[in-house]
Write a structure and sequence with these properties.
This protein is mainly α. The protein has one domain (about 10-50). The chain has 3 helices and no strands. The longest helix has 15 residues, at about 10-25. Keywords: Plasmid.
Length: about 55
């Protein structure tokens, strides 16, 4: 992806996706989709490079 900006509305999409995930329990949601907390931290850091907050 390099220095390219993410597509328009990516921030809004991620906000609502994470809002839904946190509605019950982020940890349970991550377990349900087979992502460890460490893997989630790496995903979150990757998005942060593009100023996308999770």
């Amino acid at each position: 992806m390099g220095s390219q900006k993410p597509p328009a509305k990516t921030q809004e999409f991620m906000y609502f996706l994470m809002k839904e995930a946190r509605r019950q329990s982020l940890t349970e949601w991550l377990e349900e989709i087979d992502i460890s907390e460490d893997e989630f931290d790496k995903i979150e850091a990757w998005f942060a490079r593009y100023e996308i907050k999770l």
